[in-house]
């Protein structure tokens, strides 16, 4: 997201994003790759030189009627709704998906993979990374929106009886 707007379903990565993704080194190489539905995740995976399975659980948060719209436009049209969302983003936007629903679907997907010994890589969206972090850390949903997730950010998790956070890297320089 390079502008103050909610993502669109049809959002694609730009040439700079494609170039930055192409420069990322994935070591050790993943054994299984899952890709969130939508052009941006698919194009990022392709730029990373990866192919994998499309996983519906890795879909971006449904931004409802605000999808693709800029913050300034929403502020002009409905400042009270924008103020309410900014105060409690986990509640979701009008007509959209609450963060709790994102967290539930991402948590279920993660827990289904917990027994796997494979190195798994998911190419997905910031809302999904926030949901994964909320699941691992067990914090309230509202705290997930205090985490900035830059383009090409990398979240490294492990599972040994419980999910553990190993690292969160900011992403590509100037991303």
Characteristic terms for this protein:
175 residues, Rossmann fold, three-stranded parallel sheet, 7 helices
Structure summary:
This protein has helices at residues 15-22, 39-47, 71-77, 79-87, 99-113, 126-137, 141-144; strands spanning 32-35, 53-54, 120-123, 154-159, 163-169.
Explain how this protein is built:
The structure is a single chain. With 175 residues, the chain is α/β, with parallel strands linked by helices. Helix content is 37%, strand content 13%. The protein is built from 7 helices and 5 strands. The strands form 2 sheets. The protein has a 3-stranded parallel sheet with strand order 2-1-3. Strands 4-5 form a two-stranded antiparallel ribbon. Helix 2 links the parallel strand 1 and strand 2. The chain is globular, with a radius of gyration of 16 Å. It starts with 14 loop residues before the first helix and ends in a 6-residue tail after the last strand. The model has no long low-confidence stretch (mean pLDDT 90).
Residue-averaged pLDDT, rounded?
90
The order of strands across the largest sheet is 2-1-3
Helices and strands: which structural class?
alpha/beta
The CATH topology of the domain at 15-64 and 98-169 corresponds to: Rossmann fold
Spatial separation of the terminal alpha carbons: 10 Å
**Biggest sheet descriptor:** 3 strands, parallel
Number of helices: 7
Secondary structure tally: strands? 5
Rg (C-alpha, Å): 16 Å
Text of the CATH class of the domain at 15-64 and 98-169: Alpha Beta
CATH architecture of the domain at 15-64 and 98-169: 3-Layer(aba) Sandwich
Which term fits the overall shape?
globular
Percent of residues in helical segments?
Answer: 25-40%
Strand content: 5-15%
């Amino acid at each position: 997201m390079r502008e103050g707007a909610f993502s669109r379903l049809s959002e694609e990565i730009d040439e700079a994003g494609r170039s930055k993704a192409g420069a990322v080194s994935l070591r050790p190489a993943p054994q299984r790759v899952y890709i969130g539905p939508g052009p941006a995740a698919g194009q990022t995976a392709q730029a990373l030189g990866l192919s994998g399975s499309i996983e519906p659980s890795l879909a971006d948060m449904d931004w409802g009627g605000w999808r693709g719209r800029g913050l300034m436009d929403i502020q002009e049209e409905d400042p009270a709704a924008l103020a309410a969302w900014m105060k409690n983003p986990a509640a979701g936007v009008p007509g959209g998906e609450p963060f709790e629903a994102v967290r539930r679907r991402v948590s279920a997907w993660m827990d289904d993979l917990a027994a796997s010994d494979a190195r798994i890589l998911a190419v997905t969206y910031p809302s999904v990374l926030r949901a994964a972090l909320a699941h691992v850390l067990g914090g309230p949903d509202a705290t997930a929106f205090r985490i900035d997730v830059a383009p090409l950010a990398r979240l490294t998790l492990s599972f040994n009886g419980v999910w553990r956070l190993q690292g969160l890297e900011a992403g590509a320089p100037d991303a």
